[in-house]
# Entry
Amino acid sequence: MDADRLDRFSRQIILPELGGAAQARLAGAHVVLIGMGGIGNPALAGLAGAGIGRLTLIDPDRVQASNLPRQTLFAPADLGEPKVAVAARWLARFDPAVEVAVHQVALDSANAADLLAGADVVLDGTDTFAARLAVADACVALGVPLTSAAVGRFQGQVANFAGHLPDHACYRCFVGDAFDSTDCDTCADQGVLGAMVGTVGSFAAMHALRVITAGVATLGDPQWGRLHVIDGLAPSLRTMRIPKDPDCKTCGH
# Structure
């Protein structure tokens, strides 16, 4: 790292739980971020701020006025533009050294493997089970860790999955096979508060950083298969373990 980069990340490098080796690991990492909505916006800010060297952004949608209260990388001048294009412009202003690729497409089982290949970790903030399961299946097939984040009104869920590793659950072990459908509630149906998705998106970014720096930092272990449930009303946080399903069609026998 040159002097400018060392100065930029100096407050992180001096953390005993991080250090120079982990910062170098972050600089060489490739994260695929799926969904540039309420979770994806704060997650992108957290990952870019930490010094991730390469980011791939995937989202088919364009900026709408109803996005602005919680998708804070966007402004009224961006209405109608592709979310991934606006996010890439923000990233170029924030840190021109970050390598960024964008795909304005809906991820599905047909294109997931191509879009996710080469990632060190995938952070999924999509809002349908069909997309989430396509991501999860591709991650297992490619041997890529998955950070999954979701919000339903005032409940958030974040977990790291490594279904490609022996004895570790994948996302399908958690939700089963009943949700291979685009028919599910979204924030447009249930309502959403910006501060809540901001909390979950930032938590997810931190969780992805644990995966990337495992072995060279003490940010905490990746906590594979442990689902963190955030209650925004209480507020509280509880954790439950997701067991591996031996009959899972993605990661089972």
In short: The beta strands are 30-34, 54-58, 99-103, 121-124, 146-152, 155-161, 226-231, 236-241.
